Amino acid sequence: MFSEKKMEVYEDKYGLSIRFSWFTPKAFFLMFFCFVWDSFLFFWYSSLVGTGTPWLFYIFPLIHVALGLYLTYYTACLFFNKTYIDVDDQHLWIHHTPIPWWRGNADLPVDEIAQIFVKEKRENDNQSSEYSYSLFAKLKNGSTKKILDIGITDSQKALELEEVIENYLGIQDMPVKGEYGKTRQLEDLSILKKKKRKIRAGALELLYKEERDDVLFDGAYYEVGQVRQYDWKDGNSDKLLQLIQEKEQQTLVYIHQNKGIYKTYLEEELNYQQSKPIGFSVNNPLDEIQFQGVIYELYSYNEGDLFVGESAEPLATKQWLYRSKDAKKHLRIINNSNILTYYKGIQKIIDSIPLDDQDFLDLNQTPKEKIKRWNDEDFV
After folding, report:
1. Fewer Cβ atoms within 10 Å of its own Cβ: the N or the C terminal residue of the chain?
2. Rounded CA gap, 318 and 333, in Å?
3. Nearest to 254 by CA among 239, 237, 268
């Protein structure tokens, strides 16, 4: 809907402002169409006045009148309207002016926004398909809100708009179910099973997995989505892998390093409502947290760099790691650019799944052949 010249981005100490025009060449076609359509209806009703025509002839075209009024109003918006997106430290505000438009206005507190993402809409007719793109916000309480829906037809511009807003808010981009341009369908399970020999799932194997790799984990087949690597100043490196299954079901796997020891945890990200009872403060972190009936004690505090996906730019990151007394559960609290993200994890004991008999060595099994004992004469 808008081209490079029509999109204007301003950023200063007061905030971010984005402005673009609604105008598109199809406005001229709609103007001609509305002129013909409205003229026909005008002459229709003019010919009925004072003729004693039955009321049915007045009522029958009302649907056409409503359609004509809507198209005329929309066409005027295409010629004159502009959309303004203003973002500051507290609010994301979207409005359209000078002609009022009842869809797409939004006013969201930025501390409730977890992700900004784009969705594609496809409309088919007998000969071709038309695509448009809308902007959505995924909120920390788990809900999704459409924040911009005015028929953007340029997918790259929609993605650019998403990127500009997320960069300003310091939101790290994460795949969202159903978004355009970031996720793809997994291969059929039968295809993955043929690759079984190539996709082990032990903790060490997971460390070397990259985005879009296939993996067999805990008896199920997944594709690796986003990968986050934490390089801490104490020399350890942790990884968070998003494993995506068919139908976009996802599992978060966190691999924690303590020198030469690696532990694997299944994690879930807590939304705003879930994390609110924790009552965590960066300025005064608690030594102990009681959450959902479990007592977590502060185990470690780390500072370091976060690498997201294939991004070469590290992000300064702080982490508070709390563990339950049996060390099987944890809470991770991540601080990126003063935005807190909460993860709850439970330890998962995994080993490389045997792929067939010859790939698996059971050290507890009695040897099938007698072990050869070395004698002095065997040495040279």
Report:
1. C
2. 8
3. 239
Burial category of 265 from C-beta neighbours within 10 Å (exposed 0-12, middle 13-18, buried 19 and up): buried
Q: Are 18 and 7 in contact (CB under 8 A)?
A: yes
Phi, psi of 194 (to 5 degrees): -70, -25
Q: Are strands 15-21 and 8-12 parallel, antiparallel or unpaired?
A: antiparallel
Q: Percent helix, strand, coil in the chain (nearest 5)?
A: 25, 40, 35
Q: Is 78 helix (H, G, I), strand (E, B) or coil?
A: helix
Neighbours of 198 (CB within 10 A): 12
Name the phi and psi angles at 177, rounded to 5.
Answer: -55, 125
Q: Please name the amino acid found at residue 86.
A: D
Domain residue extents for the chain:
8-169, 189-347
Closest by alpha carbon to 238, among 259, 224, 222, 223?
259
CA distance 133 to 118: 7
Q: How far is CA 143 from CA 94, 218, 273, in A?
A: 19, 29, 11
What DSSP letter does each residue of 142-182 carry, written as one string? S-EEEEEEEEE--HHHHHHHHHHHHHHHTPPP---TT-TTT
Q: How far apart are CA 239 and CA 308, in angstroms?
A: 10
Measured from the Cβ of residue 352, the count of other Cβ atoms closer than 10 Å reads 14
> Token pair 């007045």 is at which residue?
58
DSSP annotation of 253 reads E
How far is it, in rounded angstroms, from Cα 15 to Cα 165? 11
What tokens does 282 get? 């960066």
> Would you call 80 exposed, middle or buried from its count of C-beta atoms within 10 A (0-12, 13-18, 19+)?
middle
Half-sphere exposure of 350 (CA within 13 A, CB side): 25
Q: pLDDT per residue over 318-366, tens digit each?
A: 999 999 999 899 999 999 877 888 999 999 876 433 333 333 333 344 4
